[in-house]
Design a protein that fits this description.
Helix content: 40-55%
Oligomer: single chain
Distance between the termini: 23 Å
Strand order of the largest sheet: 2-1-3-4-5
Strand content: 15-25%
Number of helices: 7
CATH class: Alpha Beta
Radius of gyration: 14 Å
Mean pLDDT: 94
Shape: globular
Largest sheet: 5 strands, parallel
């Protein structure tokens, strides 16, 4: 079973994704992917954990991280973490390219949902890919 965790800044986006994935047109694919979803809060992880710590915990727990668009702002940023620590055995990080548009544009949200389903269905092939943007 796959595990997907939403970063604290996009928990609402995960709620929208779940509504899309469980809609009649995608329900069968979502069931086939067999993925459980989580938030930092649900796991008892602090919402202010540095990016490196979130990434490390996700890797240790076998959870795929879903984020908004993060930048390389420090040595502990997600981008810096991936550059320094990513290996071929690491789970990828999925980043919604435009989180604001996702919440305002149903067509864009649908494209993000479909691309994420594609990525989740071929996760083994994406190991070590680092960050993948959706859509």
């Amino acid at each position: 079973m796959l595990k997907l965790i939403a970063d604290h800044d996009i928990e609402g986006h995960l709620d929208v994704l779940l509504r899309i994935w469980t809609s009649p047109s995608r329900r069968e694919t979502w069931a086939w992917v067999d993925c459980r979803t989580f938030t930092l809060r649900r796991l008892g992880w602090a919402e202010n954990l540095p990016d490196f710590e979130v990434w490390r915990l996700c890797q240790q727990s076998g959870m795929v991280l879903l984020t908004g668009n993060r930048n390389e702002e420090s040595e502990e940023s997600l981008e810096a973490t991936l550059k320094k620590h990513n290996t071929l055995e690491c789970l990828p990080v999925f980043t919604i390219g435009d989180p604001k548009k996702f919440m305002l544009d149903a067509i864009y949200a649908g494209k993000v949902a479909d691309k994420l389903l594609d990525y989740l269905s071929e996760l083994d092939r994406l190991m070590g890919a680092g960050r993948l943007y959706v859509p």
